[in-house]
Design a protein that fits this description.
The chain is of the alpha/beta class. The chain is built from 14 helices and nine strands. GO terms for molecular function: adenosine deaminase activity.
Amino acid sequence: MLVSQLPGSLLIALLPVLLLCWADLCHGIPDRHKRDILKQQEASRQIGGRVLLTEKERQLNTQLQKLKEQEMAGPQFPPAMHFFKARPLIQRSPVFNLLRKMPKGAALHIHSLSLVDVEWLVKNVTYRPHCYMCVTEDGSVRFRFSSRQPRCHLQCFPWVLLETLRRKLGNTSDLDDSLMRKLTLFTADPEAAYSSQDVVWQRFEQAFAAASGLVGYAPVFKDYFYQGLQQLHADNIMYLELRSGLSGAYELDGSTHDRAWCLQAYQDVTRQFVFRHPGFLGARIIFTVHRSQTISTMKERMKEAIDLQKAFPEVMAGFDLVRDCSIMATLLSTSSFTVLFQGRRFGFSIGRDQIGPTPPPPRLPHYW
């Protein structure tokens, strides 16, 4: 029935309803101009949202977006794969190689024993004179530089001079590949090799223990840090914060150095590198302590960290607790723990949650 055919009284009664519906219909259509303004306001609040790109930067952004879309449409998508399996694809990725060339800010969470590529450790450091190696009962390795054969202990026997071993083998490629595997977590089948977090942590600490004997040798200590700065600089990283226990530096005769020596070495190498690479902003050290330490040991280390910061303000950045976060639960239950951070400035980290039925431990301030 047409509106004109409705009875007059009914039409008059329905007229306000029709007008309201018509008004709602009109006002329900979004105003494109206002919508565009709202989108621009939201975009401006994002990180970098108020930075205006130049014409060349817009061209690069378009090219980068195109490369990303091509990678996403490919048969294998690295972000959806286990990193060990995706790593070769990432290294060949046009997106990754483009990002490597772009300038970056800071690397803020690198541990001293994982600063440099293990290939450099094996191909350079283990080929130096007086480098000994032994195999432990659990199949991991240990290294030591010494003017004579190191003393044997139950967990590691016998010590072999790598120079002599390589001479006997002739072809050293298999040995070098084996040593690189011992210094990393990489394996062909990670899902089967690492069935739980505990297994991963055990293997992780074995690799760090192996590297410590190489990195801790005083001449290598300085060369290793300089090599790490070079590798970061090659990736256009301009600043480093390095976590280090500041211990274990030793000489060929077995004598050891204290933490002040380590900080002085870090400071000297950083100054030397910045002088040769003016675009690099520098490096600072965060003194680390294992989470399993007792409260009394923590207090001693905290006091030591404060003293070191006063002595080396240029290079000493702070204090941190490292290794498996699940260890922290028992430490946090001790009421005297708060004394460690009383009156100190500190930052926070979200930590690394444990995957599984066990709830994650409480959060902890990571460094001051």
